[in-house]
Amino acid sequence: DVKVTQSSRYLVKRTGEKVFLECVQDMDHENMFWYRQDPGLGLRLIYFSYDVKMKEKGDIPEGYSVSREKKERFSLILESASTNQTSMYLCASSPHGGWGRMITDTQYFGPGTRLTVL
Amino acid sequence: AQKITQTQPGMFVQEKEAVTLDCTYDTSDQSYGLFWYKQPSSGEMIFLIYQGSYDEQNATEGRYSLNFQKARKSANLVISASQLGDSAMYFCAMREGVFSGGYNKLIFGAGTRLAVHP
Is B35 within 8 Å of A106 when comparing Cβ atoms? Predict the structure, then answer.
């Protein structure tokens, strides 16, 4: 089975802090993704990575950065956390490279991190 | 315009009965993929079933089946013999096939919350 793990299930941080969310997948998948999920807004793509050290902006990259130094690990960084970044953050991975052009490229998700910024 | 529409914010069903969760989509592509995910209260998004636009048969996975009506652009999820553990949010998602210059991302609907009553 595909296993995607996230470093924390719940996290509470203060405004202005630098926050790291870690994601690890154990299936040698090419692509990794970070989403945030908010009530009424569904899932929104923040960033994705299709290879080590490669990253692409999603729909809402402002206020976030990412790092992928190893194939299995994809980190989301909030440089200076703000209250409007309080949300559920979901990491996902998918097997097919090539910018995910394969229709069947299924994404597998981690358990999520519920971040609260005070 | 909404690409994925799930018109039922909430549904309930009696245990052991079947339930249909609606999903309509909007695309001008001929080649696309449709996905259903389940999100229990624990937060993890669980992949359930996939249907390709060129697949002639409706997809089935255990108690899950996808009622794919291409002309109507609908991809409804049918859960047979509902169980208490089926209580969750259910998301329909689509990936379009035409390369648009970037990653062909998954587009999610707003979700339907299903409650299974004993």
Answer: yes
Confidence of residue B87 (pLDDT cuts 50, 70, 90): very high
| Amino acid in position B81 | A
- Tokens 């790092």: give the residue: A67
CB pairs under 8 A between A and B: 62
**Nearest alpha carbon to residue A33 among A62, A7, A66:** A66
Model pLDDT for residues A58-69, shown as the tens digit of each residue = 989 999 999 999
Are A90 and B43 a contacting pair at CB < 8 A?
yes
Q: Give the CA count within 13 Å in the CB-facing half-sphere of A75.
A: 11
Beta strand pairing call for A64-70 and A73-78: antiparallel
Q: pLDDT for A63-111, tens place per residue?
A: 999 999 999 999 999 999 999 999 999 999 988 765 545 677 889 999 9
Which candidate, B76, B72, B95, places its Cα nearest to that of A102?
A: B95
What is the tens place of the pLDDT at every residue in B54-76?
Answer: 988 999 999 999 999 999 999 99
Residue A100 corresponds to which tokens in the numbers above? Answer: 């995910």
d(CA A86, CA A83): 6
Q: How far apart are CA B48 and CA A38, in angstroms?
A: 22
> What chain B residue is nearest to A97 in terms of C-alpha separation?
B103
